Amino acid sequence: MSNTTTQVHFSIVDDELEVFAPPALAAVHDFFETEIGTSDAMLNLIEHHVRHDHRWQFTGDACHLHLDGETITIEHGYTGARTILTRMDLRTLLTDLRALLTEQG
Q: Which of 26, 40, 46, 53 would bridge 81 by S-S if both were Cys, CB 3.0 to 4.6 A apart?
């Protein structure tokens, strides 16, 4: 497990996703809270592309995800915050969120 994945934690409060991450991972925080939240459909979409596509781009309401091989860049469209992750790091975070949503369901 990388340092990135150990620094991000999820919880559900009043049926909303809350993400706890250090300021250096602000784009990851915003991406999970604003683009995925507690939506199984959105989580399924992101998981599918991260697992199966070599290149892919997602533009959400506030954040953009760029998948390029083993590198994932998440950018906040308004603040300019940017985080670069490995594909494995993002897969781990998606798995953690899936576990939490399953537990809550």
A: 26
